[in-house]
Design brief:
The protein is of the alpha+beta class and 561 residues long. The chain contains 15 helices and 21 strands. The strands form three sheets. Strands 1, 11, 12, 13, 14, 15, 16, 17, 18, 19, 20 and 21 form a twelve-stranded mixed β-sheet that branches. Helix 8 runs parallel beside helix 9 and helix 11 runs antiparallel to helix 15. The longest helix has 21 residues. The protein is globular and about 65 Å long.
Length: 561
C-alpha cells in the first residue's frame, strides 16, 4: 500500500524524504541584510573566515561575481571564485548545490546555470591535488518530473519549441537535459522530452554549521545594488536576507545536508538520463559524495515555547515527484512557509507589511481580508514590482507572463475589495529621469522602476518572515524554499523602521499616526514631484497597466506561476 505523503506540521514531524521540522530557537543576534551592498561583503567575510565547511545553496551563483568586502580586496581576491579557491586551499570543504532549470521551456536559465557551473569547475580544476580542502558542485534538477502521459500529450507542442531552440541557439543540443532528445542535431520524434516544472529556489549559505544567511538574494552581478538604487533601470534590485548564528543556523545546515545527500544519491543512481545532468567532464564515479553524519553532527541547542521570547525558526517548502502518468506538478510534502505566512496574517493586529516579488494567491488575499474583518484597525501595506522583471526588462509577452499578471491582478483586486482604504499597494521608482532607452512597463511616472525581489512579511513589529518564497503557488507548494520565522525580538521593529526609512527617504516618520496614510501621502506627492526631488522611492502601484497586460490562460496550472 502506498504511503500517503503529508507536510510536516510541527517540530519533530517528518515528511517522506525530508527531515523533521525545526523548532523555535533563541533568536540570538539576527542581522537584516538589506541590498546586496550590505549582504555580499558579509557573506564574503563569512567564507573567508570559514574553518571547516562552506555550504552554498542558490538558484543562481556566478563565481565571477566581483568581491566587494574590504577583507577580500586586502587579500587580493577579485571575485567569488577566488574566495572559494582560497577556502579550499585552507582546508575548507566547499559545497555548492545550484539549481538546474527545465531545459526547453526555461532554456536561458538552464544555459546560465551550466555556464556558471562550468566556470566554477574550471577554477576548481586548477587546485593542486594535495589541496587540504575541496570544492564540490552539484547542479540539480528538482525531482518533480512530469508523468509520462502528460509529456506525451504536450510533446506535439514541445517539439516545435525544441526545434526553434536549436535554431536560435546552435549549441543548445550539447547542453545537459537537451542532448538526449536530439538525433543528428534535430529533435527526436520519440521519446518525448522530459519536463521538470519545479526548481530549487532557496538562497541559503551556512559556514561551519554556526552562521547562516537565509533570504531572497542570489550571487551574481545582476543582483548587485545599493540603497540609493543608482544602477541603470534594468539593473536595479531591492532584496533582503537575514544573518543568524547558533542553533537556527544549525537547522539551516541540517536542511542543506539533507537536500545535498538526497540529490547526490539521486544523481549517482542508475537513471541513465540523470548522468547527463552532471557537470561537464564528470561521470558517476566523480559525483560529489554524501556528507557523512559525523561531519554534519552538531548539538541541537535550546528550544523555546514562543511565548514572548525572542526566537526564530527555520521553515521550508518542499515537494517530491508525484506518482502517476498524468502528473503535471510535484506533490507538496512540506508547507511550513505557507503555514507560517497564514499564521502571521492571523496574528496581525495593527499593521501587516509585505514586500514581495509576486502577490498571486487569492487565498492569501482572503486570509488577509478575514483578519481585517476581525480587526477593524488593521492596515495593510503591500510593496510590489511595477512589472515582473522579464516583462519590464526583457519585453517577454508570452502566455505565462500574461497569466502570471492575471493572477496578480485578481489577487490584488481581491485584497483591495476586502480592505478598501485600509490597504495600500505601492512600487518603487528611481530618483532620476528615465533613460532614453527605458520604455513600456520599465518606466513609471517619468522614472525607471526599481525592482523589489525581496520576500518580507512583518506583523506589528512582533513577527517577521524573510526568505526565498514569493506569495504564489510555486513558492508555497512546489519549489524548494527556505525562510526564517522571526518572533518577539526588538530587532524586528528596527528592521521594519530601516525598510521604511529606505523606501520613504526624508519623509520617513518613526511614529506616524498611521503608517498607511504616511505611505499613501508620500507616494502621491512623489507622483507630482520631479524625480530628483522625490522623497525616497515609493509611488502607487499601477494596477491598470497590469490589468491591460494580463490574460487568462486555460491550460497553464496556477501553481506554475
Amino acid at each position: 500500500m502506498p504511503i500517503k505523503r503529508r507536510h510536516a506540521d510541527g517540530p519533530g514531524d517528518r515528511a517522506p524524504g525530508f527531515g523533521p521540522s525545526a523548532p523555535l530557537r533563541p533568536a540570538g543576534d539576527i542581522k537584516p541584510l538589506i541590498e546586496a551592498s550590505t549582504a555580499y561583503p558579509i557573506m564574503e567575510e563569512m567564507v573567508i573566515g570559514a574553518q571547516r565547511t562552506a555550504h552554498l545553496a542558490f538558484r543562481i551563483f556566478d563565481p565571477a561575481t566581483r568581491a566587494r568586502s574590504e577583507e577580500a580586496r586586502q587579500r587580493g581576491f577579485r571575485d567569488w571564485g577566488d574566495i572559494l579557491i582560497d577556502a579550499a586551499k585552507r582546508g575548507v570543504a566547499v559545497r555548492a548545490l545550484l539549481s538546474d532549470f527545465e531545459p526547453v521551456m526555461a532554456h536561458e536559465l538552464h544555459r546560465l546555470g551550466w555556464h556558471n557551473g562550468q566556470r566554477l569547475i574550471e577554477r576548481a580544476q586548477q587546485l593542486p591535488e594535495d589541496t587540504p580542502g575541496s570544492i564540490d558542485l552539484l547542479i540539480a534538477l528538482h525531482e518533480g518530473e512530469m508523468g509520462a502521459a502528460a509529456r506525451w500529450l504536450l510533446w506535439f507542442a514541445m517539439r516545435p519549441k525544441l526545434s526553434k531552440l536549436v535554431r536560435d541557439f546552435p549549441d543548445a543540443s550539447t547542453y545537459p537535459g537537451v542532448a538526449y532528445t536530439m538525433a543528428e542535431h534535430r529533435p527526436r520524434f520519440l521519446p518525448p522530452a522530459r519536463m521538470w516544472p519545479a526548481t530549487h529556489h532557496q538562497k541559503v549559505m551556512v559556514v561551519d554549521g554556526e552562521t547562516a544567511v537565509v533570504g531572497g538574494i542570489d550571487i551574481d552581478e545582476r543582483r548587485y545594488d545599493d540603497p540609493e538604487h543608482r544602477q541603470p533601470t534594468d539593473q536595479t534590485w531591492h532584496d533582503v536576507s537575514l544573518r543568524v548564528h547558533g542553533p537556527v543556523a544549525r537547522d539551516a545546515e541540517r536542511h542543506f545536508v539533507e537536500l545535498w545527500n538526497r540529490e547526490v544519491i539521486r544523481y549517482g543512481g542508475g537513471d541513465p538520463v540523470a548522468g547527463l545532468h552532471l557537470p561537464p567532464g564528470h561521470d558517476r564515479q566523480t559525483v560529489p559524495q554524501p556528507i557523512e553524519p559525523a561531519e554534519a553532527a552538531a548539538e541541537d541547542g535550546p528550544t523555546l515555547s514562543g511565548d514572548g521570547e525572542a526566537s526564530a525558526r527555520f521553515v521550508r517548502t518542499g515537494s517530491v515527484v508525484r506518482r502517476g502518468a498524468f502528473a503535471i506538478t510535484p506533490e507538496p510534502v512540506v508547507t511550513e512557509i505557507e503555514d507560517t505566512v497564514i499564521d502571521t496574517i492571523r496574528s496581525a493586529e495593527r499593521l501587516l507589511y509585505m514586500e514581495n516579488q509576486f502577490f498571486r494567491l487569492r487565498r492569501i488575499a482572503d486570509e488577509i481580508g478575514a483578519r481585517m474583518r476581525d480587526r477593524p484597525e488593521l492596515e495593510v501595506i503591500l510593496l510590489l514590482p511595477m512589472a515582473p522583471d522579464m516583462v519590464a526588462f526583457e519585453n517577454k509577452t508570452g502566455p505565462e507572463m500574461r497569466f502570471g499578471e492575471w493572477l496578480q491582478v485578481k489577487a490584488v483586486r481581491r485584497l483591495l475589495k476586502h480592505g478598501g482604504d485600509r490597504v495600500g499597494v505601492f512600487s518603487l521608482v528611481r530618483r532620476a529621469p528615465a533613460e532614453p532607452n527605458v520604455t513600456g512597463r520599465a518606466k513609471a511616472f517619468g522614472s525607471g522602476i526599481v525592482y523589489p525581489h525581496s520576500k518580507v512579511m512583518i506583523a506589528d513589529d512582533d513577527r517577521a518572515i524573510v526568505g526565498s518564497a514569493n506569495l504564489n503557488g510555486r513558492s508555497l507548494r512546489m519549489d524548494t524554499e527556505a525562510a526564517l520565522d522571526w518572533r518577539d525580538d526588538p530587532g524586528i521593529r528596527e528592521f521594519r523602521e530601516t525598510l521604511f526609512s529606505h523606501h520613504l527617504g526624508r519623509a520617513y516618520e518613526a511614529t506616524p499616526p498611521s503608517a498607511l496614510q504616511l505611505w499613501a501621502r508620500v507616494a502621491m506627492e512623489n507622483v507630482h514631484l520631479d524625480p530628483e526631488e522625490r522623497n525616497g522611492f515609493i509611488v502607487p502601484y499601477k494596477l491598470g497597466a497590469a490589468r491591460r497586460f494580463a490574460r487568462f490562460q486555460r491550460f497553464i496550472p496556477e501553481v506554475y506561476l
